[in-house]
Amino acid sequence: MVIIEDVAAATRVSTATVSRALRGLPGVSDGTRARVLLAAQQLGYVPSSAASGLASGRTMAMGVLLPLIERWYFSAVLEGVDRQLRSAGYDLIVFSLGGTGINRERVFHRSILRKRIDALLVMCMEITTEEHLSLRELESPTIVVGGSVQGVRHVSIDDDAAVCEAVEYLISLGHTKIAHLRGGGSYGLYFEVPRIREEAFLKTMAKHGLPVREEWSVFGDFRFKEAKTAVIEMLSQVTERPTAIFCSSDEMAFGALMAAASLGVTVPGELSIIGIDDHEFADPMGLTTIRQDPGEQGAYAAGLLLAELEGMQPVVCPPPQPHTLIRRGSTAPPPR
Amino acid sequence: MVIIEDVAAATRVSTATVSRALRGLPGVSDGTRARVLLAAQQLGYVPSSAASGLASGRTMAMGVLLPLIERWYFSAVLEGVDRQLRSAGYDLIVFSLGGTGINRERVFHRSILRKRIDALLVMCMEITTEEHLSLRELESPTIVVGGSVQGVRHVSIDDDAAVCEAVEYLISLGHTKIAHLRGGGSYGLYFEVPRIREEAFLKTMAKHGLPVREEWSVFGDFRFKEAKTAVIEMLSQVTERPTAIFCSSDEMAFGALMAAASLGVTVPGELSIIGIDDHEFADPMGLTTIRQDPGEQGAYAAGLLLAELEGMQPVVCPPPQPHTLIRRGSTAPPPR
DNA sequence: TTGAAAGCGCTAACAG
DNA sequence: CTGTTAGCGCTTTCAA
Hints:
2 copies of one chain form a homodimer. By secondary structure, the first copy, chain A, is of the alpha/beta class.
């Protein structure tokens, strides 16, 4: 392995100078810097992150803690985070709970706290007071993406407004019988988004004086399959069918779409369906939805963390991220 | 920050003993070990990975290099890798090219070679000779998942056999007019899987003496939307329609399904559709497919790497991973 | 502008 | 079974 001393020897300067030259620090003459750069290049020198981390206290790596990788929103955020980090020369360390909370304690202690990361981005998860304290001790800047968490700043869309816009769009089309396909708190984790969306739905319906029926409230667990099953059951058993379904996520909306198809219910003729996300499949499935951009959210949040590591003042209360209504073929006025 | 000396002081032993005790090494009396463990626990001591990495030469982290995170197969593999690593106390560092090859050189030099990882798992990507050499220099065990790569062992299904099984299933149902919805080499990366599947398709058709028509070969780029568009175009313009479509991935098969629906072509009445993957949505979409388990593949590959790091003999040629035909509603005999 | 030297926190011989 | 002693490769004062 080529180490800094090799470069120093090749250039006939000290390792201190090599270090300074390579990191672009001031106080190195142009000539020396050029020679060092060249030698490093030729020798194929790459600094050891362990050594520089140990010496400087900065690891040049950021951690992302998430409940599950294999879900559209999470992996899209991850992609954005990675993009941002990569351009800043940071590495991305992923801590997934793999859909359960089982090894959570271990993840926290054995991994996150190992002084391996300079900052932590937490996705859609409540963190406990104890965990929060551990993080404070590490003095790593922390941020949450995709769901508000008590006591920690977060980056996400304004869920309340997004839901409101979706439901009011249905209302503006003339719908009054609107069902809600709800998400849930799987993953063995507390997960605030479903609750916020539920409340926003109820609030909007109430605001417009519309009835909310118990039998029109179905649980789809944020999943395609579960949503399909639940909607089939609802549509088959209900005393009166709704004319529209507001779905708390696109994946569930896909389930609703398939449920309608399998029952021979036409969309949007007999039933309008709207989602939230603008999942990659929403366009080809013709789903009307509220678009959000998880990649941008991830990149933005990572950017805030990076800025802090550069010594900037922390942004205490990041602005809500944008969302937009995307009209596609799954919504129309109710049958008269 | 609590460091090893604090634990040593609290226990009145040397740091060497603390280190040994904490890592479960032999040569520590039960009593001492217990006291050390207790003190470490109480003080909230967590070893610094940079320091232990520097001293021992092992980082306890594994890297995964992939073209893109946000794709079913890739994120599912990642999930499996993470699970395996977590249980071995290893961390997962993700290097995504974000769908392009643009920053590839940088990823390699600034990140992978920084002596931050003990082993590297490469997903579905060709690595260049130079890159391969860099890795050899690092002496990090390497493995490829999800596609064979020249000169590097890989973990994946037997693509040839899987495709053969899919196509022969269609043939066994009586189909003779079979289209192929092909994947492609996006991401600016060489990606061998689509070619293997193409060849296997042609081979199987030839073996059964069936015609392959140019106009039935459509390119879906492994994506839902592109596939839908391409299939609509094919079905509308073709002189004679195929009675079945073999799709090189489930996501493309979904596109084919939607294409058929939007043209009013019934599935499986007029058109049978089969995919490969058993994507999470395949079940609720009723798609017949060849199942593979990316999570298991990732976990298995990571396990091989871990075993090597433990000093085991490398498995030079990992066995192909299992695949199974899953019959669902999208396939039936052709219309007579 | 440069170099010497002292660590960063841990592990790994080698003694005892 | 335990302690002492060198480092691991880099950064960072402090001098020159």
